[in-house]
Specification:
27% of the residues lie in helices and 27% in strands. With 326 residues, the chain is of the alpha+beta class. The strands form five sheets. Strands 1, 4, 5, 14 and 15 form a five-stranded mixed sheet that branches. A five-stranded mixed sheet has the order 8-16-13-9-12. A two-stranded antiparallel ribbon has the order 2-3. The longest helix is centred in the middle third of the chain and has 36 residues. The protein is globular.
Length: 326
């Protein structure tokens, strides 16, 4: 951006931009979003620009069970086992907001300050929308992990050893109720690991829904002391209480007529069902303030907006069960 001269308060504007972009670079996804809670945030190709390109990366996982060893035995080694994933990044940016010349002369700092909050909020909404698209298309999108759709009934537990064991992470005609939520949690426990035995990876369970009706039902199951019995004539103790938390991803209602929900397990920072690859963190920009800037010289306006180079991708199918209600 050209040196800003001749307009009141420009030093304050530059400082504001620096503060906002410094915060954005440290937390590319707002912590309060669903994306921040279920995605592994990683640098795309080590932070180099990969606009419009796909990066293939691998993540190691152990496929060897522990064995009883003699104290005199030399422990043998095996070739590392890895799982393959892909990340596609693009440049994302909305149209810039135009700031007329005479507004700049009177209250440019106030305009930029107020717009900054709107821009930050809209960038967070955009991230949630892109994540919902990724999830919503999961049943029809083939992934690099094992060549199956991300939501499938016949995933390989170890793509390096086809036929060892399979698992399902997709359920249809599966209403959000006590029995089915309990089944989804059990599926996450019973999914086979790379050695073919139940993985039962510990972690935090999250139920993601999209509509108010789903959210109400999920919160009752997550927090209620008692719930209606299957017959509906009495109540019973709620054994699901405290076993999962509820997140609402409103944009997800655009898929499956608002009937999709899923159970997710978050084991640690990397063992999550989705990835967020960042080539360039979201940045707010402001140009056209200097008298010789192109937009100022030709149109008498400044331009404000945000841009980012990133992409969401599919990660471990073992850590999510996608469900569609009947």
């Amino acid at each position: 951006m050209a040196i800003n001269t001749g307009i009141i308060g420009l030093g304050d504007v530059d400082q504001l931009l620096q503060e906002v972009n410094s915060e954005l670079s440290q937390r590319s996804i707002m912590p309060t979003t669903v994306a921040a809670q279920i995605c592994w945030e990683r640098a795309a190709s080590g932070g180099t620009a990969t606009i419009g390109k796909t990066t293939i990366f691998t993540v190691p996982f152990f496929a060897n069970r522990a064995k009883v060893r003699s104290i005199y035995e030399e422990i043998q080694g095996t070739i590392p086992t890895v799982a393959k994933f892909a990340s596609h990044v693009d440049e994302w940016a909305p149209d810039a907001e135009l700031i007329p010349k005479y507004t700049q002369l009177t209250d440019i700092y106030g305009v930029v300050r107020d717009n900054a909050q709107i821009i930050l909020a809209m960038s967070a909404v955009e991230m949630e929308t892109q994540l919902s698209d990724l999830i919503g298309l999961g049943a029809t999108t083939v992934v690099d992990y094992d060549g199956k759709n991300y939501f499938a009934t016949d995933h390989e537990c170890n793509p390096n050893q086809p036929g060892l064991a399979t698992f399902s992470n997709y359920k249809t005609s599966f209403d959000l109720n006590y029995a089915n939520v309990n089944t989804a949690l059990d599926l996450l426990d019973a999914v086979p690991g790379p050695d073919g035995n139940p993985l039962s990876m510990p972690g935090t369970n999250l139920l993601i829904c999209s509509t108010g009706i789903q959210e109400g039902a999920a919160l009752t199951l997550a927090n209620g002391q008692y719930i209606p019995s299957p017959a509906g004539t009495a109540t019973q103790s709620n054994s699901l209480k405290g076993r999962f938390d509820v997140l609402k991803l409103t944009q997800l209602r655009r898929y499956n007529s608002g009937k999709f929900w899923c159970m997710v397990r978050i084991a640690d920072a990397k063992n999550r069902p989705f990835s967020f690859s960042k080539a360039m963190a979201p940045q707010m920009y402001l140009d056209g303030l200097a008298i010789d800037d192109h937009s100022q010289a030709t149109r008498g306006v400044a331009r404000q907006g945000w841009k980012s180079v990133h992409g969401f991708g599919y990660l471990w199918p073992q850590l999510i069960v996608g469900c569609v209600e009947s």
